[in-house]
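Z., the sequence and structure:
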Amino acid sequence: MAMDSLFDICAEFVADSADNYLSDIRTLPVGIKDKLVVKMTRRRKVTDENISELLHPGTQKLNLECCQVSDVALQQICCPHLKTIILAGCRRITSEGVIALASSCPSLKVVDLKDCEGVTDEAVRALAHTCRGLEVLSLQGCSTIGDAALLALAENCRLLHALCLSGTQVTDVGLIGLVTGPCSNNLNELQVARCRNLTDESVAAVFTNCPKLRTFVINDCPHITAQVWMHRIANFQYLSWTV
């Protein structure tokens, strides 16, 4: 039977009671901080109060899914090499925090804002203008996101290859603007489930302009009909469509 190392045992203990050791955590070597952050995020122990002690300028990946963090935490993230941040389920996050994050972390490539209902077009515009290397973005459940966000992505993020817009307010104007922009040749995954403003017009534009698209989810879009995609089904590894 495998036994945990002394390091793992100590790290587990510190992760469970980190707020009692913040001054000590501040001085830890970056390699140990990185391992501690992983353990703490799994426990949802990262907070507005301790995040600045846990991170360092070289941090490259941060998963805060469902952690009790707000804009205050994002305003403390000064990690110019951060490439991936997962904020899914962080319902206290708003555009103010995302704008601050984009300003401090221009190297972001993967951003997950699933169910961050306080995030608006303004936040996506900030990401698009500052983080031009963005490759993967989830806005699922960000119910106020609309066409302005897509048009900003279209103008600035040519490397974007995976985008989830499910549950947003985007219309044909925004989606057509996106798929006729520079990222159209790279886009290989697009999810627009529950985007109830979309019609066959924008879906036809997706098929015409995105030759690498292999995953397309268009469930619960009542104005999209089978006629627009039935002859294209062979091009996809995964296609999901319902009314």
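The chain has a mean pLDDT of 90. The longest strand covers residues 215-218.

Let me know what you think.
H.
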